[in-house]
Task: structure prediction
Amino acid sequence: MRYGFDSARKGHWKAKELEEAISKRMQSKYAQLVSSGTAALTVALVSAGVGAGDEVIMPTFTFVASFESILAIGAIPILVDVDETLTLNPSSVEKAITKNTKVVMPVHMCGSMADLKALKTICEKYNLILLEDACQAIGGSFEGKPLGSYGDLGCFSFDYVKTITCGEGGALITNNLEYYKNADHYSDHGHDHVGNNRGAETHPFLGYNFRISELNAAVGCAQIRRLDEFLEIQENNYNILYKALSDVDGISFRRIPKGGIQNYSFLNFFLPTEVLTRRAHKALGDGGVDACFYWYDNNWHYYRKWEHLINLTSLGKLPDDINKNMPDYSKSDFSESDKWISMDHFQSN
Result:
């Protein structure tokens, strides 16, 4: 339990220790640990005042948690195209803005970042919140700022396949004191955490249970001390693969925005056509390269296989705001995304 039981814990506060380490490493004033990256996105959105009927712009290429976190609070996920960065296309973002838009949520997929400078300019122009989903890109940077710290809020995942892990866990960072206080309270049933008597704490507003445990946080404390070590290993492996692939005719690579440094956890490369990409993917699999994926057919990460979102399949009745205002994604044209994703391979480092 990360809160209370002061005498029993004998001065051990692993979640607080990890939050301090994250804040320092990410050059952010505040960090709030939660139970997962999905929880981090959910809490971040709520903490910024996002709720029923609000629209959140997100990419067609991401993990399903992106739209799950939006739907969980009754908001509307607005999917837009990605470009050769494999992240949000700024021009597509601007075209998608409506009077109900509240957040632009770039997802720094596969270790590299969106065009954050362009997206921040758009957010400032339309008075929108810039929320960075940096769950796959911890340790990367843009214009000297750690990914996650460039926007108003940033989120990380610490599950078992991320660069650093807590087993399960997540975090959000921000320089906004109001957002931080909201996150602190909301992620623990609305507790205000004032004083040292948990039973006497008040509840300024409704909250839910998105707490991380002290056991998970303890693992994270050890892991974050090794983040730079892991990044170096990833960069070395990336460069070996990049050099080998660079000598192959027809192969090209995703664009890294100027001023950006990826965390080198993934290597994405393109082939000239979908047919050739499929053949290469099969050949790599037949050759025993089991860490190579073809995103275009991936169930988790690309909109084409998100039937549950497209059909709004739910165990219970969905909020009216969602039923009435969700775009009909069965009729959407994401051909610009398809162009890039259909020719894209991914190799884990």
Observations:
- The mean pLDDT is 96.
